[in-house]
């Protein structure tokens, strides 16, 4: 018994001596140092994140227009820009993210193109290309919205307008243009390589403006006279009378030799190639979105027709945060999806034996193209992905939004929101990430096509809201 007690005593004594005081002290010091280092590292990271956020906030520029109840804006130009960012409740709640739409349909001309039209006309005036109330005429080739925006601002500034457009666009756009006093010429849909394509005809009409006192709208075939036409720095065309000599100085502005101040001129706005298109969104729409989201957005999605919106907004957002994900929503028949995904401007519908009557034959209007414009080239370096949106998906989304949100939007807006849903599902985002897109125009411009059940039936496009409902409830997309 005494032996057992002795062994137990020795064991307890040995245990009390392990570990040694020195080892214990070293362990405690190590733990304290590690804990202190962790706190210090976290504090430093938080400090730099705060400094970065403060730096970004300092870079915000004042809004170009502030609309308050105690202010009076000057004419229609004051009603363009600073549109609200609206949460799409049904989609956001279903996905667990924040899908936010820039409500561009609230601009005075009813679409995002108001910004572009205003920028193009302002830049042309500042460069001395055109002058208000001189009998000058602005020419543009468009599928509708840009023409309406140009006609709206031109009427307020004292210009006449001639709009050339395909003959298959929604009738509502034609009626709006005519109500605004624009001369409207509708032509058959054609490729850009065809001299009778609507953009090419607009350029020709502008060129012909300087040849005579009157414009023969019925004669598309004539020889270009170079004695009275020149190209601006944005690749637009201005026409003067043959007796006047025009040249650019080293600053890019225009000098008119022996020019009369009140001489009427023709101006081809050329939204597809005009840098003003990009600038309108880089200096306006992009900063507005950054400010409205406090720089917290993770992605921006927009369709591309001319490419100015996605290029300008995307470039600005990337300049503020390179991590912002930028993608395009591309309708059927357009080649931009494949250009972004595979580097080749080709669509399966363009394969031999399958080509439809023109390149982008879709119910969606305003976005989709099969050539690279200057503005699209500005967008390509910052595009991270592209989403193909079918006609059936566009129709389903437009009807879904009316049913669940009371939002009556056009086809391009529906495409954009469909792409937002696909992106959220693809990335498996569900923690309130902010995805921003453009709500381009109202559904009131699309009654005869997108909202015409008979038209959709003949085009064999289904009206099926379950397309959206199934996607919202489906697992992560591959």
TrEMBL record:
Enzyme Commission number(s) from the entry: 2.5.1.47
Molecular function in Gene Ontology: cysteine synthase activity
Membrane topology annotation: Single-pass membrane protein
GO cellular component: mitochondrial outer membrane
Membrane-spanning ranges: 27-48
Catalysis: reaction(s): O-acetyl-L-serine + hydrogen sulfide = L-cysteine + acetate
The UniProt record lists the keyword Transport: no
Key words of the record: Membrane, Mitochondrion, Mitochondrion outer membrane, Transferase, Transmembrane, Transmembrane helix
Location in or out of the cell: Mitochondrion outer membrane
Main localization, broad class: mitochondrion
Domain Tryptophan synthase beta chain-like PALP as annotated: residue spans: 76-204, 263-441
Pfam family of the protein (one): PALP
Family classification: Belongs to the cysteine synthase/cystathionine beta-synthase family.
Name of this chain's protein: cysteine synthase
Species this protein is from: Hypholoma sublateritium (strain FD-334 SS-4)
């Amino acid at each position: 018994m005494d032996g057992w007690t002795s062994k137990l005593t020795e064991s307890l004594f040995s245990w009390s001596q392990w570990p040694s005081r020195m080892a214990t002290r070293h362990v405690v010091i190590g733990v304290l140092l590690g804990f202190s280092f962790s706190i210090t590292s976290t504090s430093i990271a938080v400090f730099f994140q705060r400094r970065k956020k403060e730096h970004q906030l300092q870079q915000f520029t004042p809004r170009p227009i502030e609309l308050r109840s105690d202010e009076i804006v000057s004419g229609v130009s004051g009603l363009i820009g600073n549109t609200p960012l609206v949460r799409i409740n049904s989609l956001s709640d279903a996905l667990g993210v924040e899908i936010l739409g820039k409500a561009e349909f609230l601009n005075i001309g009813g679409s995002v193109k108001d910004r572009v039209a205003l920028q193009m006309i302002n830049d042309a005036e500042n460069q001395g290309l055109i002058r208000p109330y001189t009998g000058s005429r602005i020419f543009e080739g468009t599928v509708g919205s840009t023409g309406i925006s140009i006609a709206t601002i031109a009427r307020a500034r004292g210009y006449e307008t001639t709009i050339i457009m395909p003959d298959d666009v929604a009738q509502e756009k034609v009626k709006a243009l005519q109500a605004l006093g624009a001369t409207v010429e509708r032509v058959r849909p054609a490729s850009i390589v065809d001299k009778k394509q609507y953009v090419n005809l607009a350029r020709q009409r502008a060129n012909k403006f300087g040849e005579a006192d009157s414009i023969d709208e019925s004669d598309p075939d004539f020889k270009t006279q170079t004695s009275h036409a020149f190209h601006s720095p944005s690749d637009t065309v201005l026409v003067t009378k043959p007796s006047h000599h025009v040249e650019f100085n080293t600053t890019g502005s225009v000098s008119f030799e022996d020019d009369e101040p009140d001489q009427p001129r023709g101006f081809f706005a050329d939204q597809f190639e005009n840098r003003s298109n990009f600038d309108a969104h880089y200096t306006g729409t992009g900063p507005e979105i950054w400010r409205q989201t406090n720089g917290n957005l993770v992605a921006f999605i927009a369709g591309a027709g001319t490419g100015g919106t996605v290029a300008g907004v995307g470039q600005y957002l990337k300049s503020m945060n390179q991590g912002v994900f930028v993608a395009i929503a591309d309708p059927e028949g357009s080649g931009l999806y494949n250009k972004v995904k595979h580097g080749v401007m080709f669509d399966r519908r363009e394969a031999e034996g399958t080509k439809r009557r023109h390149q982008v034959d879709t119910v969606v209007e305003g976005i989709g193209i099969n050539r690279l414009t200057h503005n699209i080239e500005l967008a390509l370096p910052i595009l991270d992905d592209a989403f193909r949106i079918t006609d059936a998906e566009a129709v389903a989304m437009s009807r879904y939004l009316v049913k669940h949100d009371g939002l009556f939007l056009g086809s391009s807006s529906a495409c954009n929101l469909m792409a937002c849903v696909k992106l959220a599902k693809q990335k498996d985002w569900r923690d309130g990430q902010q995805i921003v897109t453009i709500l381009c125009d109202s559904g009131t411009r699309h009654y005869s096509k997108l909202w015409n059940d008979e038209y959709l039936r003949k085009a064999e496009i289904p009206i099926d809201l379950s397309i959206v409902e199934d996607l919202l409830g489906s697992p992560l997309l591959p």
